Amino acid sequence: MKGSTLNPPTVISRRDLLKGAAAAAGGCLTLPMSLQGADSVAPKSVAAVVTRYEKGLHADVLIGKIMEGWKQDGGTGPALKLASMYVDQYGPGDLARGLAEKYNVPLFDTIEGAVTVGGNSIPVDGVISVGEHGDYPYNDKEQHLYPRRRFFSEITDTFRKYGRVVPVFNDKHLGPQWDDAKWMYDRAQELKVPFMAGSSLVVTYRDPELNLPMGSDIEAAVAIGYSGLDIYAAHALEVFQCLVERRRGAEKGVEWVQFLQGDAMWKAIDDGRVSSEIFHAALALVAASPEGVRQSKDASLFLFQYRDGLLGTLFMLPGFATGTAIALKVKGQQQLLATRFEERTQPRHPHFAYLLKGIERMIHTGKPSYPVERTLLTSGILDRALTSRLLKQERLVTPELEIRYTPVDYPHAPFPELTSRPAGG
Predict the structure, then answer these.
(1) What range does the domain containing 143 cover?
(2) Is 6 inside a domain boundary?
(3) Of 192, 348, 392, 404, which is most buried, counting CB atoms within 10 Å of its CB?
């Protein structure tokens, strides 16, 4: 497949490609036929660029589903075919070499080699970049310096060299440093790369089910997160954003960001800036009891003011909370809305299968399934919050986060439920 211009690849007609409608949160969304359980869509080829490939790592639960089916049991999978792979580091539990041999996937020692499949053109229809896990340094803000910018730079340098652009997915947040995140976004805009990024939790199961209509009058919202700040606040911020972006008139960006710990974080509840009722509604979904929450070790609060006046609120409670949850108040509704974003492990981390469905849709249509600006904004909030932490909890004005975008009504799991057949079936 030969390309000659820096434009997205030509795709088959929407009428031929798409069939039916999937149940969506507050609406309907047309998805590729493979997502409806049909087998008649010709697979698109993808190159994988990953940091490390071992069981349970992001590369495994994303790329492994292309080779071995949605449930990684040898059953049916996405309408994608893995054409090539680049692995930055080979760990002691490496799976890449064995799977590459089993499925006849060539491994390359350069990113350009993987994107061109060793040739002098770009024959693949998309690239999946997984810059997560592996032996990489940390900076003074405790950001794990995964090579996401380097990966994207070399991928897009290859596009420019060979005169063809294809869609790219970047796993998790951009950056992780703000300058790198913004550079990646600007490069995608410059070269007109169909670009997606972000957390698998935005499309995971919600317990209880929560479908928030577009244009909702959200008066207040509180998120609870757990685990490390850089690694898991990224997830919590993005699932928070995937709900609050559905408010009336959103999204226009964030005016300021502040990180708080100790007495200062709990004062935000005590003085009424953050609703105690909403906080406890979210906490109840991820903690056995609220008792002792104020004594929880390493607890912190991310506060950020949206440009339309909504206060963004994320409590990170490592060692106390057991998951990610959000509660919110909608104008005119007496009852609060709250849900937990599930991280199921069986079969083989299924929320990553729903993320892969969104990637599949982009690669087949040439258009992102939802805006990368959401991930850019949350990447910026995270970086600014960690900067505030380093600067002794200073509030940071953030004109760089005046990021505007229009959200789309993309569904979360199940849409439809995954289907698979036994290995060898």
Answers:
(1) 16-202+349-370
(2) no
(3) 348
